[in-house]
Design brief:
The protein is an alpha/beta fold. Helix content is 39%, strand content 18%. It has a domain of 283 residues: Alpha-Beta Barrel (TIM Barrel), CATH 3.20.20.30. Helix 2 crosses helix 3, helix 2 runs parallel beside helix 13 and helix 4 packs across helix 6. The protein is globular and about 60 Å long. It is built from 14 helices and 17 strands. It starts with 6 loop residues before the first helix and ends in a 7-residue tail after the last strand. An eight-stranded parallel beta barrel has the order 1-4-5-6-9-10-11-15, surrounded by eight helices. Strands 2-3 form a two-stranded antiparallel sheet. It has a two-stranded antiparallel sheet with strand order 7-8. Helix 4 links the parallel strand 5 and strand 6.
């Protein structure tokens, strides 16, 4: 039975933790954007979209997210997208308060230098950095960048990487000699200058991934699965973290398709797959089966490479995963239905929601105008303090949140 989204239900379902603060983030499409999930699929399973990921377009998305009241935007990492550090540094100059969850892999940079780079980002953006360290689950792509470690070794390296990263940000000057890294007199030569240490976002569904998360993550990320599967994962990770003497937050990474009516939303969802053939679906499915990612395996199991029965639980659609790797599910339905499903995930322990949709600019406005006001009425979201009223340009007022008119981009 769907939970009814109200402040009383939410507080009850969360065990009376009224002080718990839900956070809302959007996604920055650094591999491109468009009205279909994919246009062209290459050998790595990446896509070429109709809207290039240039600074101008990504700034549009980021500014819309900031205007809507999202706290941050997540950037992906991988060969099919622009480098997250460079892209976020560029787009940050065109926003004021929006934070950036910069994704990168431990094989791409030394941890002490990542700490230095992160400290620079914090100072230059006045504290707007969050990070998402991605271990990497595709051996083909890892090898293409010169990383030949096996999965278990990659996770051990990630754990050591995060240990050094945190130690560097602590202000300590130290020596370190581990399995993968050796430092002499490591640590920042210039402090964070009073800015907060960036929060660490991390996802990993396999036992070694969960072990790393329990020791090092501030927010554990999971892709959208049916409620029972998410509940089991959250409980497992929470228990592992408690055994390490730690508490952590949990985040859901999922797409959204929200419209005034459920029929409209499902029509949009089905339309996203019009540009992909059965041959292309089979190609993506075969390509994703070669990865070592447990999370990717779970995404594939939801659809099995078939267009049939893609609504795997109420309003949870697995169609996105037919055309791409990574997060493969979307919440599809009326604004109220999407809000109700979000409430159910929040009741399971989700503290943060990283949302996206195709195209990311228009879908952000659909969610912002349709769902955020419902969440605000029911006490789950509030307009951020200091969000300028002057940002209204040709806008409509949606329950205390204002949004400009969205152009019909082709």
């Amino acid at each position: 039975m769907a939970l009814q989204l109200s402040s009383n239900v939410i507080n009850s379902a969360l065990g009376g933790r009224e002080t718990r603060q839900l956070k809302w983030h959007w996604f920055l499409p650094t591999s491109g954007d468009g009205r279909n999930v994919t246009n062209v699929i290459d050998v790595l399973g990446q896509t070429s979209m109709s809207r290039p990921a240039d600074v101008a377009y990504l700034t549009e998305v980021a500014q819309a997210a900031e205007r809507a009241g999202f706290e941050a935007v997540l950037t992906p990492t991988g060969s099919g997208c622009e480098d997250a550090w460079v892209t976020c540094a560029a787009v940050a100059q065109h926003t004021e308060k929006l934070k950036f969850i910069v994704a990168f892999r431990p094989d791409a940079i030394q941890p002490a230098w990542a700490a230095h780079q992160g400290a620079t980002f914090q100072r230059l953006t006045h504290g707007r950095l969050l990070i998402n360290v991605v271990t990497g689950g595709d051996p083909f792509e890892q090898r293409s960048f010169g990383d030949h470690l096996d999965k278990e070794s990659r996770y051990r390296r990630t754990g050591e990487f995060l240990e050094i990263l945190r130690r560097s940000w602590s202000g300590e000057i130290y020596d370190h000699e581990g399995e993968f890294f050796k430092l002499e007199q490591g640590g920042l030569r210039r402090s964070l200058d009073g800015y907060e240490v960036p929060r660490i976002y991390f996802g990993g569904a396999s036992p070694p991934g969960i072990a790393v998360a329990a020791k090092h993550a501030d927010t554990y990320l999971t892709w959208g699965e049916p409620l029972e599967a998410v509940a089991a994962k959250v409980n497992n990770v929470r228990e592992k973290a408690e055994s390490e003497g730690r508490a952590m937050r949990f985040g859901l990474r999922i797409h959204v398709i929200s419209r005034d009516t459920a029929d409209e939303a499902w029509s949009v969802a089905n339309g996203l797959l019009e540009g992909i053939s059965e041959e292309e679906i089979a190609k993506v499915h075969a390509r994703m089966q070669t990865t070592e990612s447990e999370g990717q395996r779970r995404m594939l199991e939801l659809h099995g490479g078939s267009r049939d029965d893609l609504e795997v639980s109420p309003n949870l659609w697995a169609g996105v995963g037919l055309a791409r790797g990574g997060a493969g599910t979307a919440l599809v339905g009326s604004h109220a239905e999407v809000a109700d499903r979000i409430a159910e995930y929040a009741a399971l322990g989700m503290d943060e929601f990283i949302l996206s949709g195709y195209p990311h600019l228009e879908e952000l406005y659909w969610f912002g105008e349709g769902v955020l006001p419902i969440l605000a009425e029911r006490g789950v979201w509030q307009r951020p303090i200091g969000l300028a009223e002057g940002m209204r340009t040709g806008s409509i007022d949606a329950g205390g949140v204002s949004f400009g008119v969205v152009p019909d981009r082709k």
